[in-house]
Specification:
Layout lengths: L1 E7 L4 E7 L5 E5 L6 H13 L3 E6 L5 H4 L2 H7 L5 E3 L4 H10 L15 E2 L6 E3 L2 E7 L8 E5 L4 E5 L2 E2 L2 E2 L9 H12 L7 E4 L5 E2 H7 L6
Parallel strand pairs: 3-4, 4-5, 5-6, 10-13
Antiparallel strand pairs: 1-2, 2-3, 7-8, 8-9, 9-10, 11-12, 13-14
Length: 214
């Protein structure tokens, strides 16, 4: 599996394209593309690399991570869209506040299935482990790919920082517990691709993240 990243919208959100090398199937994680230019950048990359969109996955459903959900489902009809059930209220709240955040053209989309901790997600020959990591959002999950030591981490752990917990459904103690039990248990060499900012590693954050040491 390989990872391609795109930075979209006013929140500089990271959208990830996970590609199964054997089949050219791919999973789109947290499509934050809002403008036509952003949407077409994602589409062009997929078409130029002859990829087949197999899954749409949301780590969680805050506005900056779901702006492109409907675009994906319209562009590649029939794509399964998976979200943890505890984040359905988060997703369904987005239309009420999206305009005030500068996204008046947001188009909602409903999941077609659920993400469940411990139940793997598969596309092509790739299998992702779903880990439940609430604290930033009630139904937040991360996706771990052991063969490549990769985590698609959403807004849980950042380079030298952690996700905010002052939004509805957030909880600081819960987030720290999620990080300690679901991320810090992974090998130090594991690469974390976060929802904002540059990639980091578990080891780098274990030894240098001020929220996790001291």
């Amino acid at each position: 599996m390989t990872v391609a990243g795109f930075t979209f919208n006013a929140f500089s959100e990271n959208t990830y394209l996970l590609v199964d090398g054997a089949t050219r199937q791919c999973a789109i994680v947290d499509p934050g593309c809002y403008t036509v230019a952003e949407q077409q950048a994602l589409r062009r990359h997929i078409e130029a690399n002859d990829l087949q969109v197999a899954l749409l996955l949301n780590t969680h459903a805050h506005v900056d991570h779901v702006l492109g959900n409907q675009f994906v489902l319209t562009t590649w009809p029939g794509t399964p869209f998976l979200l943890h059930r505890l984040d359905l209220p988060t997703l369904r709240a987005v239309p009420a506040y999206a305009p005030s955040y500068g996204f008046p053209q947001y188009q909602p989309a409903e999941p077609t299935g659920e993400l469940v901790a411990g139940q793997p997600v598969r596309f092509g020959t790739t299998e992702l482990e779903v880990r439940f990591t609430p604290g930033h959002a009630p139904g937040h999950v991360v996706f771990y790919h052991a063969p490549t030591a990769t985590v698609i981490g959403g807004d849980v752990l950042f380079q030298r920082s952690i996700g905010r917990t002052d939004l509805p459904g957030g909880n600081y103690a819960t987030l720290l517990h999620s990080i300690e039990t679901e991320l810090m248990t992974l090998p130090d060499a594991t690469t974390v691709y976060p929802g904002h900012g540059p990639a980091t590693t578990i080891g780098e954050e274990r030894h240098g993240n001020p929220f996790l040491i001291g």
